[in-house]
């Protein structure tokens, strides 16, 4: 009988001990110790990854580990976000995001605007806009939103004239006047800097210009800071809709929208990237 009582007491003690461990978060799916404190973000190398890396320490102080995965194109970051391989991405503006969602049936959403990158016209075989000759080639991004943006910049600088009212939806078919019979060459945005030797001029997104060693002061013309483009093409943090109010998303946005990040952007990129928050 005594042995039975001892066994019963031991069994009870074991049950209580297990219950205590579970209550303290020792079991799977338990409390704070088992919580996922890693924020993974897909980003273009420049300037997006650089800006993200500047807030790693601030996030670490709040208990978060930031992992930045770099991509060199404008498609895979959205694929990775949709698939759940990353928690967020940072490389695009809202017009591009809207187009991507429409074409792919995805439901990605913008949760915060961070910065704006003035698009510029850069020298190829010609050293100025005045040197353009009949039949010269100008490279522009081949995605619809950045292509329209490039066409608007060429119009603002007298190279072409677009049909009235086309705005940010402009395509090559909307060119109404082309006095020098310029050939518009749509190219993958990332490849335009390397293609300048085969082009009279190239219209380049700032992140790819910076990444290739071009400086904003090298541009023959850029979008004005107070232009429609500056407000329309703000680069944003993007997540799956179901994650827009998650703790990870809130922590990431809070870390990025600070005076310290503004100062980092202004001091690092010398006007090629401008804070927009």
CATH architecture of the largest domain: 3-Layer(aba) Sandwich
Q: How many helices does DSSP assign?
A: 11
Query: DSSP strand (E) fraction?
Result: 15-25%
How many domains? 2
CATH superfamily of the largest domain: Periplasmic binding protein-like II
Adjacency order of strands in the biggest sheet: 2-1-3-12-4-13
CATH topology of the largest domain: D-Maltodextrin-Binding Protein, domain 2
Termini Cα gap: 75 Å
Sheet/helix structural class: alpha/beta
SSE arrangement, N to C: HEHHEHEHEEEHEEEHEHEHEHHE
Radius of gyration: 26 Å
Low-pLDDT runs: 1-34
Can you count the beta strands? 13
CATH class of the largest domain: Alpha Beta
User: Could you describe the largest sheet, including whether it forms a barrel?
Assistant: 6 strands, mixed
Architecture overview:
This protein is of the alpha/beta class. The chain folds into 2 domains: 38-117 and 233-275, Periplasmic binding protein-like II (D-Maltodextrin-Binding Protein, domain 2, 3-Layer(aba) Sandwich); 120-224, Periplasmic binding protein-like II (D-Maltodextrin-Binding Protein, domain 2). It contains 11 helices and 13 strands. It has helices at residues 2-23, 45-53, 56-61, 76-83, 94-104, 144-156, 192-195, 206-211, 228-232, 247-256, 259-269, and strands at 38-43, 65-70, 88-93, 108-116, 120-123, 137-141, 161-162, 175-177, 183-187, 201-204, 221-222, 234-240, 274-275. The strands form 3 sheets. The chain has a 6-stranded mixed β-sheet, sandwiched between helices. It has a 5-stranded mixed β-sheet with strand order 9-6-10-5-11. The radius of gyration is 26 Å and the shape is elongated.
């Amino acid at each position: 009988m005594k042995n039975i009582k001892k066994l019963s007491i031991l069994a009870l003690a074991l049950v209580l001990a297990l219950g205590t461990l579970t209550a303290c978060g020792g079991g799977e799916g338990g409390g704070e110790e088992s919580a996922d404190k890693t924020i993974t973000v897909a980003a273009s190398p420049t300037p997006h990854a650089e800006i993200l890396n500047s807030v790693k320490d601030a996030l670490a102080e709040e208990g978060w580990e930031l992992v930045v995965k770099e991509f060199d194109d404008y498609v895979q970051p959205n694929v990775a976000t949709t698939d759940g391989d990353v928690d967020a991405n940072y490389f695009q503006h809202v017009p591009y995001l809207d187009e991507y969602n429409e074409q792919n049936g995805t439901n990605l959403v913008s949760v915060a605007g961070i910065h704006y990158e003035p698009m510029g016209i850069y020298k190829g075989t010609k050293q100025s806009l005045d040197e353009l000759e009949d039949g010269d080639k100008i490279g522009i991004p081949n995605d619809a939103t950045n292509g329209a943006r490039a066409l608007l910049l060429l119009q603002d600088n007298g190279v072409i004239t677009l049909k009235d009212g086309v705005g940010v939806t402009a395509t090559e078919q909307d060119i109404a006047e082309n006095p020098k019979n310029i050939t518009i060459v749509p190219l993958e945005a990332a490849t335009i800097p390397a293609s300048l030797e085969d082009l009279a001029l190239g219209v380049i997104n700032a992140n790819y210009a910076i990444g290739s060693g071009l400086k904003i002061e090298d541009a023959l013309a850029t979008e004005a800071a107070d232009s429609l483009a500056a407000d329309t093409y703000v680069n944003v943090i993007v997540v799956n809709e179901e994650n827009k109010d998650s703790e990870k998303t809130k922590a990431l946005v809070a870390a990025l929208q600070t005076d310290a990040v503004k100062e980092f952007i202004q001091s690092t990129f010398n006007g090629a990237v401008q804070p927009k928050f």
